[in-house]
C-alpha cells in the first residue's frame, strides 16, 4: 500500500467502527487503511488516549551554543555592537571552549540579534506617542542625550581599490581591543549642543557629570524651548541625582520606551559621525562632532517622528 498521510479524524473513525463491531476487513476496505495501521492506532489510543503519536522530544542535534552562551553573546553585542564575527569566535573558544564556524555562528546569532525587536513593548511605545502629543508635538522642546563608543573598528574604511591581482592596503590602524573611547552628546534640532569624550566607557557618574555640567546649563524651564531632556533606558541613565538636577532646573526628564532606537534621532547622528571619521581618519572625536549640522539634526528629528 502506498504511504499517505492519514488524518486524525479518519484514525478515530476507524477505531469507533471497530468498537461498534465492524470487521477488520470491512474497515480496511471502506477506509483504505492497513491492518497494521489499525492495531498501531489502537495501541496508541490505549496507552496515550489519542491516535496521534506525540512528537519526539529529541529533535535535531544539540545546540552548539547554549542559552547561557547566547545570552552572553547578546550582552557583548549590547556593549560593543561592531565586534567582528571572528573576534566573537575567538572569545567563545577561549572563554567557553566552543569551536564553531563563522557561518554557524552567524546562523546562531540571527535569533539573538532579532531579540531586540521582539522585546519591544508596543504599549510603552503607544504611551510615548501619547506623551509626545500631550507636549504639543513641538520638537523644539526636546534635547536628546546619549553616548556611543569608538575603537579602531571605526576608523578603517570598509573598501579600497587596487590594480587587478593586487591587494588594496591602507595606512589605517589595526584593531586593538585595548583602544577605545566614548562620546557623550546632546542634540536638539539645531545640532549637537554639547559633547564629552573620555577613554573607556561611560558609567553612571560620567553621564551624570556630562548632563549636569554641559547639558542642564543649556536647558530652560518648562515649557520653554529646550526644556525636555530625553534619554533611553540604559542602566547608567537611571540616577536619582539626575532626576533632582533636572527638577531643580524646572525642566522635564523623559525616558524612551525600551529597545526603541528608532525614536531617538541622536542614534542616526552617531552613524554619520562614524562615517565622517572613516573618511577623514579623525583621531579627535570632539572635532569630528562638528560634521553634524543643524539641517541633519532637523531631518533626523522628522525621521524619528518629531515635528
From TrEMBL:
One Pfam family of this chain: DDE_3
Q: Which GO molecular-function terms appear in the entry?
A: nucleic acid binding
| Chain ranges of the Tc1-like transposase DDE domain | 143-280
Q: Which Gene3D superfamilies match?
A: Ribonuclease H-like superfamily/Ribonuclease H (3.30.420.10)
> What protein does this entry describe?
Tc1-mariner class transposase
Amino acid at each position: 500500500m502506498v504511504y499517505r498521510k492519514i488524518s486524525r479524524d479518519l484514525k478515530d473513525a476507524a477505531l469507533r467502527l471497530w468498537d461498534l463491531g465492524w470487521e477488520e476487513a470491512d474497515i480496511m476496505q471502506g477506509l483504505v487503511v492497513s491492518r497494521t495501521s489499525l492495531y498501531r492506532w489502537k495501541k496508541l489510543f490505549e496507552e496515550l488516549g489519542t491516535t496521534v503519536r506525540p512528537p519526539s522530544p529529541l529533535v535535531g542535534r544539540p545546540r552548539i551554543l547554549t542559552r547561557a552562551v547566547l545570552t552572553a553573546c547578546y550582552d557583548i553585542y549590547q556593549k560593543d555592537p561592531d565586534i567582528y564575527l571572528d573576534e566573537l569566535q575567538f572569545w567563545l573558544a577561549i572563554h567557553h571552549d566552543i569551536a564553531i564556524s563563522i557561518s554557524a555562528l552567524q546562523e546562531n546569532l540571527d535569533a539573538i540579534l532579532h531579540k531586540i525587536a521582539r522585546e519591544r513593548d508596543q504599549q510603552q511605545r503607544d504611551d510615548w506617542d501619547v506623551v509626545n502629543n500631550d507636549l504639543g508635538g513641538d520638537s523644539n522642546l526636546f534635547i536628546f542625550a546619549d553616548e556611543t563608543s569608538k575603537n579602531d573598528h571605526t576608523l578603517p574604511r570598509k573598501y579600497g581599490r587596487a590594480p587587478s591581482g593586487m591587494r588594496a592596503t591602507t595606512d589605517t590602524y589595526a584593531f586593538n581591543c585595548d583602544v577605545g573611547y566614548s562620546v557623550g552628546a546632546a542634540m536638539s534640532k539645531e545640532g549637537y549642543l554639547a559633547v564629552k569624550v573620555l577613554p573607556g566607557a561611560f558609567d553612571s557618574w560620567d553621564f551624570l557629570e556630562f548632563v549636569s555640567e554641559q547639558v542642564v546649563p543649556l536647558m530652560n524651564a518648562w515649557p520653554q524651548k529646550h526644556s525636555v531632556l530625553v534619554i533611553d533606558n540604559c542602566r547608567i541613565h537611571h540616577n536619582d541625582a539626575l532626576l533632582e538636577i533636572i527638577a531643580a532646573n524646572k525642566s522635564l526628564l523623559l525616558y524612551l520606551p525600551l529597545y526603541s532606537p528608532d525614536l531617538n534621532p541622536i542614534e542616526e547622528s552617531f552613524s554619520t559621525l562614524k562615517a565622517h571619521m572613516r573618511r577623514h581618519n579623525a583621531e579627535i572625536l570632539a572635532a569630528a562632532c562638528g560634521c553634524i549640522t543643524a539641517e541633519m539634526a532637523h531631518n533626523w528629528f522628522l525621521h524619528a517622528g518629531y515635528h
